[in-house]
Each structure stands twice: as structure tokens, then as C-alpha cells.
């Protein structure tokens, strides 16, 4: 990926940086260019990156010039699955507070339709007390299986940076799904924070 030449115009900009490895690569290359940059970071991986680079922890107090973030899978019409790393709500807040949102992806993320390559399900951040009712409603209305993401190194579910749980919805990968409407329908289920 040759990105250095494409971002020279961002000198002295305020930027958000996502959790994905592609955004690490992008920001690392910008840092190597010795530009004066103020990065807003969120999530555990990015905090580690921040200590090694020039990032700061996240409290949004101004509009960012641009946010860089990766994607788990993306279609030609820009429908995408994001959040496989579990940092959904904070990524959404930082992205919303930027003038431009740049998705960084390599060829492995390109798909004809959602679910073609990404087999871990659509990540959905939910309020803990509603995790079972959200799971049941998704399965009843849209089919598939919504699984509570369980932690590997501790007992119980994965807990996000905001204290929420994650559901991974294993849906039938169907090219005819209207993902814009699905996004609206999922967000209307009480207890769904972000997906």
C-alpha cells in the first residue's frame, strides 16, 4: 500500500485513528513523514500505539479534520462490516466528529456482498441488561444466530471500553439484503448501541 504521497495535504491536521492494523500502518507512515499531527485515539490497541508514537487519549472537544479506520469487509457500494475488534461505539463517535472519514482496506477486505468472506458475524454492541432480548429479537426478525462474544483470557463475555457486550450475528450471506434498511432496523431495537 503506497499511501505516503496521498496524504501530504494533511499537514497540521487533527486526526482520529481506528483500532485496525491498516490504520496503524497509515498513521505510522504519516508519522515517519515528520508532519505535525494531533491524533485522537480510542481503544486498547490504539493506546499502546499512542505510547510508541504521537497519539493522545480520546476526549472529543473539537471537530477532527479526518478519521482513518479499517474495515473487516466492504462491498463495491461501500456497505461494510466494521468492529470485529470490538471498539464499535467509540469508533462511531470519533468518525462522526470528523469532516472526512477515510476507510483503509487492502484487497482481502473486498467482497461482492456482506458475509461473502467475513465469517465471524456482524458485530453489534449492546447494553448488557438487554443482550438477551436484543439477541432474541434479531434471531426472530432476521434469522441467523446472534452469539454473545465470550472472552478468551477471563470468564464471561467480552466487555467493550464503554462497559457493553458484543453480539456477533451470523446471518445468511445473501446479496439481496438491503443493508441500509437493515442498519435502521437493527438500531431501532432497544439496547442496541451500535452495529
From TrEMBL:
<dbReference type="GO" id="GO:0006014">
    <property type="term" value="P:D-ribose metabolic process"/>
</dbReference>
<comment type="pathway">
    <text>Carbohydrate degradation; pentose phosphate pathway; D-ribose 5-phosphate from D-ribulose 5-phosphate (non-oxidative stage): step 1/1.</text>
</comment>
<comment type="similarity">
    <text>Belongs to the ribose 5-phosphate isomerase family.</text>
</comment>
<dbReference type="GO" id="GO:0004751">
    <property type="term" value="F:ribose-5-phosphate isomerase activity"/>
</dbReference>
<dbReference type="GO" id="GO:0005737">
    <property type="term" value="C:cytoplasm"/>
</dbReference>
<dbReference type="Pfam" id="PF06026">
    <property type="entry name" value="Rib_5-P_isom_A"/>
</dbReference>
<keyword id="KW-0413">Isomerase</keyword>
<protein>
    <recommendedName>
        <fullName>ribose-5-phosphate isomerase</fullName>
        <ecNumber>5.3.1.6</ecNumber>
    </recommendedName>
</protein>
<dbReference type="GO" id="GO:0009052">
    <property type="term" value="P:pentose-phosphate shunt, non-oxidative branch"/>
</dbReference>
<dbReference type="InterPro" id="IPR037171">
    <property type="entry name" value="NagB/RpiA_transferase-like"/>
</dbReference>
<dbReference type="InterPro" id="IPR004788">
    <property type="entry name" value="Ribose5P_isomerase_type_A"/>
</dbReference>
Amino acid at each position: 500500500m503506497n499511501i505516503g504521497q496521498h496524504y501530504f495535504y494533511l499537514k497540521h491536521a487533527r486526526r482520529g485513528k481506528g483500532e485496525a492494523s491498516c490504520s496503524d500502518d497509515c498513521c505510522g507512515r504519516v508519522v515517519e513523514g515528520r508532519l505535525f499531527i494531533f491524533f485522537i485515539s480510542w481503544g486498547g490497541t490504539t493506546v499502546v500505539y499512542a505510547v510508541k508514537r504521537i497519539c493522545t487519549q480520546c476526549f472529543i472537544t473539537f471537530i477532527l479534520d479526518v478519521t482513518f479506520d479499517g474495515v473487516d469487509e466492504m462491498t463495491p457500494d461501500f456497505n461494510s462490516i466494521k468492529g470485529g475488534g470490538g471498539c464499535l461505539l467509540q469508533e462511531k463517535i470519533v468518525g462522526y466528529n470528523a469532516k472526512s472519514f477515510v476507510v483503509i482496506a487492502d484487497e482481502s477486505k473486498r467482497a461482492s456482498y456482506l458475509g461473502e468472506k467475513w465469517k465471524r458475524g456482524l458485530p453489534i454492541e449492546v447494553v448488557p441488561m438487554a443482550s438477551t432480548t436484543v439477541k432474541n429479537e434479531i434471531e426472530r426478525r432476521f434469522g441467523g444466530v446472534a452469539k454473545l462474544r465470550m472472552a478468551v483470557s477471563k470468564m464471561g463475555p467480552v466487555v467493550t471500553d464503554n462497559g457493553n457486550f458484543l453480539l456477533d450475528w451470523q446471518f445468511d450471506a445473501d446479496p439481496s439484503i438491503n443493508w441500509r434498511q437493515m442498519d435502521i432496523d437493527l438500531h431501532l431495537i432497544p439496547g442496541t448501541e451500535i452495529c
